[in-house]
Amino acid sequence: MKVCVGTIVHHPEDARIMHRQIRALLDAGHSVTYIAPFTHCNVTPPSEITAIDVPRAVGLRRGRALSAARRALKKGVKDADILLVHDIELLLALPRRRPTTVWDVHEDLVGSLDTKTYLPESARRMLPRIVHHMESRAERRMHLILAEAAYRDRFLGNHPVIPNTTYVPTTPPPLPGGNRLVYVGHLSEARGALEMIELARRLAPAGIRLDLVGAADPDVRPVLRDAQRQGLLDWYGYVPNDHALRMAEGALAGLSLLHDVPNYRQSLPTKVIEYMARGIPTITTPLPMAASIVGRADCGVIVPYGDVDAVAQAVLRLRDDPERRAVMGARGYAEARGHYHWPDHARDFIARLEEWAIPAPAPALPRAVPA
């Protein structure tokens, strides 16, 4: 099977796209053409794929990226059996003649509008109706994959859910340490960036440092740089997912201090599963799915939204109790290995694409009756 995969919004090494789905396709023996903003993100495409470079769609000015995407998609689908797109923007750039098309729905697009600080108020009022119309139209014209079961409420059909899980090591990771916190993922105000900076300030006298691993929104980059210059934390910027998770191993705990906004409310933060997979306790705000998993497995601490004092106290208690850290890390690892190992879900992903890539047989014509 020849698969064309496209994004102009996500980083080319996005964990779901590159490290999970494309890796699963390659491991299953399929060929991949990948349309992504390689140059913009300073990424060298792996030799195993056919890469088509496009500009990245950023902020309000996306016309150039869309125009380039139209040309790239037309080229990329020429001999493809299936087209897999990851951005709602690409629904506006699909070639007229194309193979079976699949849209992988990553997020609650309407719920995420509050977190997109670059949007003017007028756009935030208009976009929900536009997004709903595009989702409805896409549902009628192509196959959908959902990253969360909660997204089903936005659609009429019963679309398959391919959860955003992670690779869980076959052997248990190192024990959690006692002097380093870690955060893996994109950094923004809604994801708790400002609380983490203040947390680092309060914990520095206790000899506990904070490692932030991920790209950041423009509005929080200055304060992150200032905190790093003051020696409060280490901000590494974007790091490919597999390397980032190795950096998380051995930390005292992993942070997931997301705010209570619609885009996060019904989703499972992948970072929670990633921390569990790497054998470290999770400190999370009480988003329903995160709190449910962490509470059920007893593999971390649930703290109130925006409460830096509560987070600092939780960190110090874990620091002072290495046995509790080790037990939480082991419980999280076992839960992740048993329920959230990506290869267990990759089989369903591959099977869906293989099924959809096969053209439906033409209806049999009635046999002529001899005169």
TrEMBL record:
It comes from the Bacteria. Residues 179-333 form the Glycosyl transferase family domain. GO terms for molecular function: glycosyltransferase activity. Pfam families: Glycos_transf_1. This is Glycosyltransferase. Keywords: Transferase.
